[in-house]
Structure formats: C-alpha cells, structure tokens
Task: structure prediction
Amino acid sequence: MKMSLSKAREIIKKYQGKEGVLITILQGIQDVYGYLPKDTLKIVAQERSIPPATLFGIVTFYSQFKLSPCGEHIIKVCHGTACHVTGAERITEAIVGMLNVKEGETTSDGKFTLEKVACLGCCSLAPCIMIDDKVYGKLTADKAKRVIRRISPDTGKG
Ligand code: FES
Result:
C-alpha cells in the first residue's frame, strides 16, 4: 500500500512563506509517520527550495530525526560518562552481535531499534540501557542479552 503523503503536505502548507521553520516541519512530519519517509523529504526539499543533499545533511545532523521506521521496541544504550567508563561499549557490542543490527538501525524482523543516547539520568545504576520505558541497570553484556531475550525469546537464536 502506498503511503499517504497528504499529512506531510498539510504540515508543509501550514508553514508556507514562514522562515526558520524547517526543523518544526520535520518534527511535525516525524510525529505523524514515526520517522521521515523519503517521499516526504522530497516534498520538503521541493516546497522549501532546499537542495536534497542539504536537507539530508540537516536531517542526519540531528539525532532526533529518523530515516527509517522504528522497531516494536526501542533499546537505548547509555553512553554518558558513568556508563561509558563502566562498560557501555561492551554492552553495545553484545547487543549489536546478538541482534545483528548497527546503532541507529532496526532489526530486519522489525522487533528492535538500537539507539545510542547520552545520560539516562540513573548514573548510580551504570552501565544501563532503557528498553521502551524501562531502565535496566548494573548490566553486563550477558545480562543485557538476557533482558532482550526475556522481551523476545526467539531473538538471537540460530
Ligand atoms: S551516564 Fe548512563 S545513566 Fe548517566
């Protein structure tokens, strides 16, 4: 089924003739679609007279913007200082290996999106990750994998 672009057009139209609203437009589109579909970016580039490469540069500069749909569960691995020194990198590697996904990407089955974030605000539990709305702290690589397996028992098998 082809995605309807009418909502994106509506948002762009709302800001027609206004300056300094590009980020607001992009946020509005992302709120509707959950990410920034390629076709909506084409319209933004056209309507706002922005070269597509420039627009792409802006979109990729801001980590809040997503270029692909999110998975069912969002895993945020904290890379703040406390988590960094207590093993965020090891946890990331374990998750990357288990899910076969890179940071910023979604697994091919659409179950998980892996994100890298700054301090989650619970440094005393470092290293920690957040899956959806829940924080898991004092993790090791193995514990992180167990948490994910509890959410999705078939993940990382075979
Ligand atoms: S640095 Fe990870 S929660 Fe603060």
User: Anything to note?
Assistant: The pocket of FE2/S2 (inorganic) cluster is lined by residues 78, 80-83, 119-123, 126, 128 (CB under 6 Å).
